[in-house]
Amino acid sequence: MKKKIYKQFFPMLFFVILLIYSISMMIPMLWTLITSFKGRLDFNLNPFGLPSEWRFSNYSKSFEVFYVQILSDDGPRKVYMVELFINTILYSVGSTLVSVFTRCISAYVVAKYNFRFKQVLYSTVIITMILPIIGSTPSTLQLMRTLGLYDNLWGIIFMGGGFTGMTFLIFYATFKSISWEYAEAAFIDGASHAKVMFNIMIPLARITVLVMMLIGFIDHWNNYTMPLVYMPNTPTIAYGLYYFQFNNINAVSGVPYLMAACMLVTIPIFIIFMIFRNRIMGNVSLGGLKG
Amino acid sequence: MAEKQETSKNIFECIFKKIKDTFYDISVWLYNCFKRFRKTKTVSAENRSKNIFVFCVLVYPVTIFIIFYIYVNFNSILLSLKEYDYDTGRFNYIGFENFKMFFYDLRVDYMLRYATRNSIFLYFFGLVVSMPLQIMCSFFVYKKIPLSGVYKVILYLPHIISAVVMVLMFKYFVDRGLPSVLKSLGVQNVPNFFYDLNTAFPTLIFFNVWMGLGGGIILYTGVMSRIPDSLIEYGELEGMTMWKEFWHITVPLIYPTITVFLVTGVAGIFTNQASVFTFYGTEAAQYLYTFGYFMFTKVVSTASISGYPYASAAGLIFTLIAAPITLIARYFFEKYGPTAEY
Amino acid sequence: MKKIIAVIICLIFSISFFSLSACNPKPDIILDKTKSQLYVGIYNGGWGRDWLDEAARIFEERYKDAEFEPGTGKKGVQVIVTGDKKYSQSGGLKNTIAYEKNDMYFSPIRYYDFVSLNLLLDIDDIVNKPLNEIVKDCDETATIKSKMFTEFSDYYSSYQNKFYAIPLGGSIYSINYDVDLFDDEKLYIGADTPVIDSSSTVSDIVWVGGDGNKSLGQDGLIGTYDDGLPVTWHEFKLLMQHMYYDKNIIPFLWSSEEGYTSNFLYSLAFHHEGKDVFDLNITYDGIYTFGTTPTQITKENGYLLQGIEGKKRALEFAKEIISKGYYHEDSGKASMDFMSAQDEYLMSKYKAENGQGQRVAFLIDGGHWHNEARETIGLMEEEYGNEYKNRKFGIMPFPRFEGHKAEKTTFYTSSFTNAVFINKLAEQKELAKTFLAFTTTDEILKLCTKISGMIRLYDYTMEEEDLNAMPYYYQNIWETFNDIDIVHYLSTNPMIYENQGYFEGQWRWTCQGSGVTSGMSFNNPFIDFGINKNLTVDQYFSALKNYYDKTKWDRNFNRYY
To answer: Which of residues 163-192 of A touch C (CB under 8 A)?
Structure first.
């Protein structure tokens, strides 16, 4: 009898913990949603209750006013939400693919092969995570300029192809825990190194790849400093939100409009997330070799 | 006619062969370059192809690193030995002055003492509370307790929603919502959560844990799902309880990932800002300082160019302390932890 | 299945990419190829950009037949104004200015950082020429330099003895009070009040309303904006007491915004001491009397200036308000940012009238708050009717403490880093210079004040009719700027400009405790008195003096002496 209760206890405990956590996450979300329908004065009078008047116009107004002003060569132009979205998707997807891919293959090589610089590379990754670089923006900008990569989507994507960062370390750990036997079997069959990597090892780690891509995608999506500095004429949603929040656009200042804008920005990515969630959250079970 | 075609075909073949030969020559030359760095042993064809493979894989990432990190930052690393001269607009060498100033501040200022205390506390708190919580929660989500599908979505919400919203929500709920709830429960003297001595740092920790829980769970769940079903079935056949399964199968198999976080956590002592800037701007009280925040204030917003050398020196000192500790930590974690391959 | 999804994603990706690069969306403002273009960037903070837009239109109209690019046949000018907070020191402008398209900027910068990096265009010739020689249809013979407030002309011409930028205007943080409230609730000190000394009580004062017979106020003149307002600190305390206990009004409200309250209290300190004492902080050459001992202040003992009496008075001010609870309970909380504070202040009238809260009398904010809050003001007028139209606000003079030394009303501010400057790599250098001079003509200076309320740091007068048409608050600001001393850390002394962040930052109120208060650290009097109920003014003041001692001072500054 005791054993049965014991067996049920821990799952129940964590179920409750997660439930509390989820509620603590949902209540603020709900509050954000409700606030986005309030008028500015209403919000001041009543920050936590229901709106006295549901202002759907907050959304349409925010959508209209949500733009970034850029100075392209043809003239000044306002970049509105749809275009900001497209820019952000291109930037996020491109950057994520390149950066995750390079780190994945670098980590694979460092984890599974022995060569002279192996330890140096690993230590470099650790060191670069700690060492803060002060005042490097001017020289980076200058370099980008000379290489013709400035203000260019390809430039910023190209720049992300290093091997440093947390992603590398996680891939390293993943590949370290994959048995080399798979590869040896393939070598006996006459496969080349490249074939082993692409057709066997990476698929074995595909869940990690997908998780890192998801995390990378979200990070790039929310990053506004990089596009702001390195491609100012292709603004992204994150910069749009930052601009919206801190610039005194007087027609729509105040918390409710900000909430409405945030909702507008979140909903598309939430939809994408919901569509692909099974794929990317590791609900796919592992195949591979038996035994 | 046919002859001409044949000769043109021959020429084409010749050229093609020449190109192939040139590439082969280049690859041999490259291989010879790398020969210097390799241990002297008989080079078999297999080794050579391995080395070429490694080279090809690493060439793009390492080149990017060299260009965009080493080349660009070379000046910045030397910055710590310089000071800014407003008359010429250049940085001039002054030797180790900045380092001396930094060590002096370290001795005298409470700011850095608080930063040390806070940053180390954050790490151990994460180690003892945050990480186990995340792993256990992930385990149960992985085991598909009721509503785990829903949990997975909700847990990742903080990352999808912009940080702007999360921070604003937190501020309003803690500043206004919580006190009114506490007052209605009859609590006197509701503290000013973000500023009172006893509650400010805990509030910050809570925010960090609250925001970070979801991301950690997603990662761990992903890693756990790589565990082969065959092992689980074996465990069930043997009559393993959930607890035993957790300790003897799950944890060892995800140990490498845990190691990554333990090790980078050590590095994070020196770089993690813990959201101090988000809530307090550049004017946080001294007892809330973390190393990351200290570096941040030295460099960002109001600091002008003349402050860069000092910040650079401080950063370098942190790195010289943190890097060896991190590598040692990694050595210990990898040596004394369970290892498993699958 | 996976492959199909991957292929679809790739397709969407490539289609979006090509469609984006292929189609060129039409620009909002069509560049007129027959005209020259001038790109102007402005930091659109509290003062807004409306005045600049208006000035740009006037400029375009006036110069529509002028040729700025001889030989190309282009006539006229098109001014394109972009407002963004990234055009500032804190927005990273010094990294991006060389790559930005804007020819000139109206934004806050650290002047020395920019000139030493060789980023600004030399405008010495324009600043020293009479305006009628530069600007069309202008009949002023004065030069920009002669119109500039002298505090600034030295600073902006100190680098290589040439001007590389000119001042714009900024905000002074002060006590903003609700004039309507004072009118209605009779909070003015009447002229019939007997002389108030330290033993007077609230009932000794004759309180009058807006149309009553008010006392002379601080300037000693009748009919000015400070009539009926408290002169001394004791009077001010009595006013707060009267408000809080008799009228159920909350005196103070402030936001948690960086620097607002710290600068406010620092300004209060120099209101007490005056410009001459502040100059000691910059020149380190003069005498200050600590108590009864006159001490020669030099660069070596500059740290002694933490012990000036003004700072103690400012601490007393903060302690009084915090210990007596004369403030809104949400003041300074993390969720009370500047916009929320303004909303709360404005809405307190509505809340008081509907039994949902108490009215707030004072808001600690910069002079730009009224412009910044115009959305809320407009909404309130719309929703709550005529009673909320044309509300009157004013700037309350700082109370005078015992031993008040300043000769003239003195304000400290760190916000006059707002400057007008031209990018060294600008395409249209001459055009930019002309526009720069144009915005300094009397006509545009007046326009700026009329539209935004910002006082430009030049000598100019406002027309009566313009003044009467402006909101009451703007008129009040204009009056306040009459005959005052403005002190700031824009100095040509290398010890100051190389350490501006230090003096404008931690030097104000940051310190560590010692003796009784050892182990504590302080940052902002309002916050620190609030969380340490037992902290006294003397303890905080001693902590300040002890923290900034000789060793620390030498460490930081011995390379200057």
So the answer is: none
- Report the alpha-carbon distance of residue B147 to residue B168 in Å, rounded: 28
Q: Which domains does chain C carry?
A: 36-170+414-461 (3.40.190.10), 174-260+313-412 (3.40.190)
CA distance B253 to B251: 5
Interface mutation vs chain A, best among C101, C336, C374, C427, most A CBs within 10 Å: C101
For residues C252 and C364, is the Cβ–Cβ distance under 8 A? yes
Contacts of B303 in chain C (CB under 8 A): 501
pLDDT in tens, B181-190: 888 888 887 8
Q: CA B304 to CA C505: how far, in whole Å?
A: 12
State which fold the B97-336 domain adopts: MetI-like fold (1.10.3720)
User: Who among B171, B192, B280 is closest to C531 (CB)?
Assistant: B192
Question: Chain B closest CA to C429's CA: distance in Å?
Answer: 23
Nearest to C238 by CA among C206, C270, C271: C206
Q: Which of C14-18, C255-259, C307-311 has the lowest mean pLDDT?
A: C14-18
* B213: closest CA of chain C, how far (Å): 23
Report the C-alpha gap between A13 and B137 in whole angstroms. Answer: 10
Token pair 């995750």 in the structure block, residue: A100
* Stated pTM of the model: 0.87
As given in the structure block, the two tokens for residue C42 are 């402005």
B32 Cβ contact partners less than 8 Å away, ≥ 6 residues apart: none
Q: Which of A75, A141, A253 sits opposite C27 (nearest CB)?
A: A75
Looking at the structure of chain A, the number of domains it has is 1
ipTM > 0.90 (yes/no): no
Mean pLDDT of B220-237: 80
Determine which of B72, B84, B86 to mutate to test the interface with C (most C C-beta atoms within 10 Å). B86
Asked whether residue A62 is assigned to any structural domain, the reply reads no
Determine whether the interchain pair C24/A74 forms a contact, defined as Cβ–Cβ distance below 8 Å: yes
pLDDT digits (tens, 9 = 90+) for A210-258: 888 888 888 888 888 888 888 888 888 888 888 887 776 666 678 888 8
Nearest to B214 by CA among B139, B129, B157: B157
Closest in C16, C372, C379 to A40, CB measured: C379
Q: Is residue A211 part of a domain?
A: yes
H helix count then E strand count, chain C? 26, 17
d(CA C496, CA C282): 7
The answer to whether the CB atoms of B302 and C501 lie below 8 A apart is: yes
**A129/B267 touch (CB, cutoff 8 Å), yes or no:** yes
C369, C46 Cβ separation under 8 angstroms: yes
Cβ pair C27:A41 closer than 8 A? no
Q: Do B221 and A143 touch (CB under 8 A)?
A: no
Phi, psi of C82 (to 5 degrees): -120, 130
pLDDT tens profile B13-30: 888 888 888 888 888 877
Is B72–A136 a contact, with Cβ atoms under 8 angstroms apart? Answer: yes
What per-residue confidence (pLDDT) applies to A288? Answer: 36
Residue A15 is assigned to a structural domain of this protein: no
Q: Given an 8 Å threshold on Cβ–Cβ distance, is C552 in contact with B108?
A: yes
A55 lies in some domain:
no
**Ranges of each domain in chain B:** 2-93, 97-336
Interchain pair C375, A254: CB under 8 A: yes
CATH of the domain at A120: 1.10.3720.10
Task: Determine the distance from the C-alpha atom of residue B95 to the mean position of all C-alpha atoms in its chain, rounded to a whole number.
Answer: 32
Q: What is the DSSP string of C105-122?
A: EEEE--HHHHHHTT-B--
pLDDT-derived band at C441, boundaries 50, 70, 90: very high
Which residues in chain A have their CB less than 8 angstroms from residue C27's CB?
A: 72, 74-77
Range of the domain at A169: 82-238
**Å between A57 CA and nearest CA of chain B:** 20
List C residues 427-456 in contact with A (Cβ-Cβ < 8 A).
none
